[in-house]
Amino acid sequence: MDLVEIYQCFCDRTRLRILNLLCEGSLCVCHFQELLNEPQVKISKHLSYLKTHGLVQRNREGTWMVYRLPEKMPAILKANLACLQECARDDSVFRRDTAKAKAVRSEFEKSSPICASRSRRGGGCG
Questions:
Q1: What is the C-alpha separation between 102 and 111, in angstroms, rounded?
Q2: Is 7 left (phi over 0), alpha (psi -120 to 50) or beta?
Q3: What DSSP assignment string belongs to the chain?
Q4: Please, which pLDDT band fits residue 113 given cuts at 50, 70 and 90?
Q5: For residues 77, 81, 12 and 64, what is the CA-based torsion angle, rounded to 10 degrees?
């Protein structure tokens, strides 16, 4: 993974929103749909792009496809995700995404405990 690959992935607002949310922990495709208010096909396309470039990992748990940041994150990716989080604090869309995710994570755990609680990894990119 090099800087150009990371920046190619970062050049789309939806992918940035996905990565910002993953900095707080794992999520399923269905949760991204709800949080970002985007259709499944669009979310899946962006997640596939991020996976192809090594920015996310996925695993199937029951009926859920769960996405998370890489377990062994390269320093260059970690630094850029920390920068993303810092910049996202000043953007209303990103702040809204983060607040909505915090408000509904407990509901995710009730409705789909496999993908929201057992798979939760992360907790910050910085």
A1: 15
A2: alpha
A3: --HHHHHHHHTSHHHHHHHHHHTT--EEHHHHHHHHT--HHHHHHHHHHHHHTTS-EEEEETTEEEEE--SS--HHHHHHHHHHHHHHTT-HHHHHHHHHHHHHHHHHHHH-HIIIIIT---S---
A4: very low
A5: 90
Angle at 34 between CA 28 and CA 40, to 5 degrees: 65
What strand order describes the sheet that includes 27-28? Answer: 27-28, 64-68, 57-61
Contacts of 93 (CB under 8 A, 6+ apart): 13, 17
pLDDT digits (tens, 9 = 90+) for 61-73: 888 889 999 999 9
- Burial-class residue 10 by CB neighbours within 10 Å (0-12, 13-18, 19+): middle
